[in-house]
Design a protein that fits this description.
The complex is a heterotrimer of chains A (285), B (296) and C (253). By secondary structure, chain A is mainly α. Helix content of chain A is 75%, strand content 0%. Chain A folds into 2 domains: 39 residues; 217 residues, MetI-like (MetI-like fold), CATH 1.10.3720. Chain B contains 11 helices and 2 strands. In chain B, a hairpin with a 4-residue loop joins β1 and β2. Helices cover 36% and strands 26% of the residues of chain C. Classes of the chains: A mainly alpha (285), B mainly alpha (296), C alpha/beta (253). The complex binds adenosine-5'-diphosphate (ADP) and magnesium ion. The site of magnesium ion has 3 residues of chain C, from α1.
Chain lengths: 285, 296, 253
């Protein structure tokens, strides 16, 4: 190696180390600032009460409505996406297994849908609501978020299901099972931890998203009160509190952000404990 | 024990699968058609060219020029890519070529957490850290007047948000390069850096471009975080320190009023349609790019 | 010790964690001969080749100890200039891995690493090595195409030409014909036989007939051990060890 080459390699290696630690440092800073700000203003009252009159000008109350609303919305959307998504993932991996081209088209479509920004889903949901003359509601929010997490749900289950060995399928056939029995019994049982990971991943996405629910779920200071009523969500409550000119209310936004971040961290911790990571883009050389 | 016999259950299961599959397969088209029919009202009265290139945005008097929003979106997207692309590339090379496997065990959870943090929280962090940093330190230091809420702030927050997304893809790409190719280059007497520079980067190039393309599409549609720090001023930004406005922010900020002004809802749905088109276009192009390149 | 030995391997041990991949290997590899390494798969042949040009450095989990003397220098002790050292050997792997460049550049890149920058000389040498690898006539009009467009057999010969282009004294080949059709395999074999007047060739193979056709010297390995080594007539004609006899009669693998 010449001197020049050595210097060049050292230079780029230094840049690489810098970039890597930059990312880690930014993560640390984000987590630190959320916790530092949030812990200072979080209180028992915030977690257990709904906003009282004048909450957004600094009066008492809390964000229980948003916490419960978000949990309900995310749970509903995840459940629905699961009910639609699991059969699709199974269908791809059991029924279409010999039709590689069809599978590829479906996976490609799913990846396309995955890339669509959530605000587009929000706008789409909104235009549907107007079309059907519906009000903002928990149900509308759930339906919109379902569409949004559906590709995530399907593709992550698909990645797990495609690893089920062919031998297992053949063994099940030889025992006289039909295809849908194989799909729902053999495949599901074999990939249960991966399926749970997919569900948790979708739940995390669903609960963190604001743009899709902005139009469709509405907002309310009351507790969630049935599928056809508007519902408060955590991301929006953060957003609204932050827009307040009153510093005290802004502090509550930090506390709410802490709550949301904690929920998501816990969910991702669970899914990490369960299974393998899923990678969207597979490129083979 | 069962309500239905085996045969019937099979039929039910099968139908359920097919219906779900059809729903999913037609989703992109459904979205497109839905948004198109809402925005057709606007397209009826204005030419596409006018909508895209007119600078005047006065919904109350019927002027719908999307140019400032498009420019804002393009600025924010490009600058955020300029920040995150080199960082992601360097990091991906470092963690796949220079560190031991254990390091990825630290890196993967870090990437996952970054990817999991919600958009609103990024926005809040931007307001908390980035905006004051720009208005109090960076602006005065560079001798420009800025409120902090600016294209730059949005780009920076956005670049952090898309790092996990791009980095994940890049790491997969570098991991997929066969060890033997590296060995082949090294056996010729190349140094590790020469191997990376001349062989691995070349091999990975289509993948790298695709990763950046996917990242770009993702950045273009990002809403809440950008909305919170970009300033939301309908004006063509002259510098990175000026506030701006983006297409997603336009939709999100005005959904409340859109029913009270004629054609306003159409205009917002047109903005959503634009976003959808850009997203589909980029993902489509990048997909075929990878497929084509893999044949060589 | 035979003073015509090009490579002398002494007490070579390779561990991956607690498992021992190579166990106290001692081999003499004669100059300008074809030495064939035989053995069932998983016995450590590839690892042995990787030790010879220090590609084991790439795998931090591998611990290598012992001595490998090439022309009297212990390459395992070398700290600097592993790059020079690797250029003493051309490597041919199980499947061809052309560099992601044109056919021409696959060779010229190797030349550049060797320090040859002059255009005219590069041209001449590219042609020379492609001829040596028995490929020139087939591809002389396609030099600017991506190397990946060649057939597998052509790619493997391109890789051989590339390996020769660093001007090595030794050729290391790891089952180089296992992915190839019979015609391409024959091309490679013939090339080896022709090249051995100038090069010391170490060939790992699982094709017994190939070994019998071209080996001058044979090393038989089993589960990380060298069971038997010697001239081809000795080992094939009159194997001393039971395991070797089993292997040669095709009882295992
Ligand atoms: N980097 C490594 N880490 C752990 N084990 C390895 C590594 N490389 C090779 N081995 C193991 O060493 C043994 C010999 O492998 P190899 O040298 O490839 O055998 P051969 O080429 O004779 O088939 C195998 O059991 C293999 O699993
Ligand atoms: Mg081998």
């Amino acid at each position: 190696m010449t001197r020049g080459q050595k210097i060049e390699e050292k230079f780029f290696k230094a840049l690489m180390i810098l970039a890597t630690y930059f990312i880690l440092a930014i993560l640390a800073i984000i987590i630190y600032s959320i916790f530092e700000k949030g812990l200072r203003s979080i209180s028992w009252e915030m977690l257990t009460q709904v906003p009282q009159g004048g909450y957004y000008y600094g009066k008492g109350g809390g964000i229980l409505n948003a916490i419960l609303g978000s949990l309900a919305l995310a749970a509903g959307a995840t459940l629905l996406a699961f009910i639609i998504g699991l059969p699709v993932a199974l269908y791809i991996n059991v029924f279409l297994i010999r039709h590689k081209k069809v599978i590829n088209v479906i996976r490609f479509l799913l990846d396309l849908v995955w890339g669509i920004p959530s605000i587009v889903y929000g706008a789409f949901g909104f235009s549907l609501m107007i079309f059907f003359g519906l009000q903002t509601s928990l149900l509308a929010g759930i339906l919109t978020v379902t569409l949004f997490v559906l590709p995530i749900m399907i593709r992550s289950m698909d990645e797990i299901l495609r690893t089920v060995p062919i031998g297992l399928q053949e063994a099940a056939y030889s025992l006289g099972s039909n295809k849908s029995e194989i799909a729902f019994k053999v495949f599901t049982r074999q990939s249960i931890s991966g399926i749970i990971t997919a569900v948790l991943l979708s739940f995390g996405r669903a609960i963190g998203d604001a743009a899709a629910v902005l139009f469709t779920a509405g907002y309310t200071d009351h507790m969630p009160n049935g599928l056809l009523e508007p519902v408060a969500t955590l991301p929006l409550s953060i957003f609204f509190q932050l827009s307040s000119p009153v510093p005290e209310v802004q502090n509550r936004a930090y506390a709410s952000a802490l709550v949301l971040t904690l929920i998501i961290l816990i969910v991702s911790l669970f899914s990490r404990g369960l299974g393998k990571r899923y990678h969207k883009t597979k490129i083979n050389f | 024990m069962y309500l239905l016999n085996r045969k019937q259950r099979h039929v039910v299961n099968y139908t359920w699968m097919i219906i779900s599959l059809l729903l999913v397969a037609f989703l992109p088209f459904l979205l497109f058609i839905g948004l198109y029919f809402k925005s057709v009202l606007l397209l009826h009265d204005y030419s596409l060219f006018d909508l895209i290139f007119s600078k005047s945005w006065k919904p109350a008097s019927g002027q719908f020029g999307f140019y400032p929003f498009i420019v804002g979106s393009v600025w924010v997207t490009l600058v955020s890519m300029l920040i995150s692309a080199p960082i992601c590339l360097l990091t991906a090379i470092y963690v796949t070529q220079y560190t031991r496997k254990n390091f990825l065990r630290i890196m993967h959870p870090a990437i996952d957490i970054l990817a999991g943090i919600p958009s609103v929280v990024y926005g809040l962090w931007g307001i908390l850290v980035i905006v004051p940093f720009i208005s109090r330190y960076l602006g005065p230091w560079l001798d420009v007047k800025t409120m902090g809420y600016s294209i730059l702030a949005a780009s920076f927050v956005l670049s952090i948000m898309i790092i996990p997304f791009i980095l994940n893809i890049l790491i997969e790409i570098f991991k997929a390069i066969p060890m033997e190719l590296k060995e082949a280059a090294l056996s010729l007497g190349a140094t590790q850096w020469q191997t990376i520079k001349h062989v691995l980067l070349k091999k990975a190039l289509p993948g790298i471009i695709a990763a950046f393309g996917f990242g770009l599409a993702r950045a273009f549609g990002e809403t809440m975080a950008v909305l919170m720090v970009v300033g939301n001023v309908v004006k063509l930004p002259k510098s990175l320190f000026d506030p701006g406005y983006t297409l997603p922010a336009l939709i999100a900020n005005n959904y409340g009023e859109m029913l009270s002004i004629p054609k306003y809802d159409s205009a917002l749905m047109f903005a959503a349609l634009l976003l959808l088109a850009v997203s589909l276009f980029f993902n489509l192009v990048m997909h075929f790019f990878i497929v084509r390149y893999n044949k060589f | 010790m035979d003073d015509k030995s090009k490579i002398e391997i002494r007490d070579l041990n390779v561990f991956a964690g607690k498992t021992q991949i190579l166990k106290n290997i001692n081999i003499d590899i004669p100059k300008n001969k074809i030495t064939v390494i035989l053995g069932p798969s998983g016995c450590g042949k590839t690892t042995l080749l990787k030790c010879l040009n220090r590609l084991t450095d790439l795998y931090p989990e591998l611990k290598v100890s012992g001595q490998i003397m090439i022309d009297g220098n212990n390459i395992l002790a070398a700290k600097e200039d592993i790059y020079k050292l690797r250029q003493q050997m051309g490597l041919l792997s199980q499947r061809p891995y052309p560099l992601p460049m044109t056919i021409y550049n696959n060779i010229s890149y190797a030349l550049k690493l060797r320090g040859i920058k002059n255009r005219r000389e590069t041209h001449k040498l590219v042609m020379h090595y492609l001829e040596q690898a028995n490929l020139w006539d087939e591809i002389k009009n396609r030099l600017r195409e991506p190397a990946s467009r060649l057939s597998i057999g052509q790619q493997q010969r391109l890789c051989l030409a590339r390996g020769l282009a660093v001007n090595p004294e030794i050729i290391l080949a790891d089952e180089p014909t296992s992915a190839l059709d019979p015609i391409s395999s024959q091309f490679i074999e013939e090339t080896f036989v022709r090249l051995k007047t100038d090069y010391t060739i170490v060939l790992v193979t699982h094709v017994l007939r190939q070994a019998k056709r071209i080996a001058d010297n044979v090393v038989f390995m089993y589960l990380g051990d060298v069971i038997e080594q010697g001239s081809a007539e000795e080992v094939f004609g009159n194997p001393k060890m039971e395991k070797t006899r089993f292997y040669l009669s095709g009882t295992f693998n």
